[in-house]
Specification:
By secondary structure, the chain is mainly alpha-helical. The chain has one domain. 83% of the residues lie in helices and 0% in strands. The protein contains five helices and no strands. Helix 1 packs parallel to helix 3, helix 1 packs antiparallel against helix 4 and helix 2 runs antiparallel to helix 5. The protein is elongated, with a radius of gyration of 18 Å.
Length: 181
């Protein structure tokens, strides 16, 4: 198992534990900075996380369609790096600053839309584990012999599962936008 896989799974587990700890009252988040700074950091996190989830697969598919092994290997490496430097910090900024922002309104328990968001966060994390493992298999198959049939199968599975992984954060984003306080 690659380090990125371990880091991704651990990051999700830590953030999920933090969120559940706050929800059940084990941890309290009081604003570290002003409300507006936490909101800016939260939005930056959403842009990094959601942006990479949308754009990454698009340029990876473009590299796949080129049938150029070198370009595909480069795209896989870039996808791995953007997961490390964009997706993981983006999710952390989003969730941690979201918990700080929720504290202003009494925490996640006092806002029904956040209860559903926590459930969706858990669903996203649970779906992400097989996606990350599938992504690792994809990287390994690119490092070995270039068998287009195997890569095609893995890429189709990765695309389908990746689409399902994108649904929970998209619904959370929708709930965040239409919420009433």
């Amino acid at each position: 198992m690659r380090n990125i896989t371990k880091i991704s799974i651990l990051n999700g587990l830590i953030l999920l534990c933090l969120t559940l700890s706050e929800f059940f009252g084990l941890v309290k988040f009081d604003l570290l900075f002003s409300y507006h700074w936490h909101k800016i950091l939260h939005i930056i996190g959403v842009v990094l996380f959601m942006g990479n989830m949308i754009v990454g697969p698009i340029w990876f598919m473009y590299a796949y369609l080129s049938k150029d092994k070198t370009l595909l290997k480069f795209a896989a490496k870039l996808l791995e790096l953007t997961d490390i430097y964009l997706t993981i910090p983006g999710i952390a900024l989003t969730i941690i600053n979201g918990l700080y922002l929720a504290s202003v309104y009494g925490g996640t328990k006092n806002q029904p839309w956040l209860f559903y968001s926590i459930i969706l966060l858990f669903v996203m994390w649970a779906l992400s584990i097989p996606l990350i493992c599938l992504q690792e298999k994809m990287y390994q198959s690119l490092d070995k012999e270039f068998d287009l049939k195997i890569i095609n199968t893995l890429l189709i599975r990765w695309s389908i599962l990746g689409t399902f992984v994108m649904i929970p954060p998209s619904v959370i984003f929708y709930l965040m936008i239409v919420k009433t306080i």
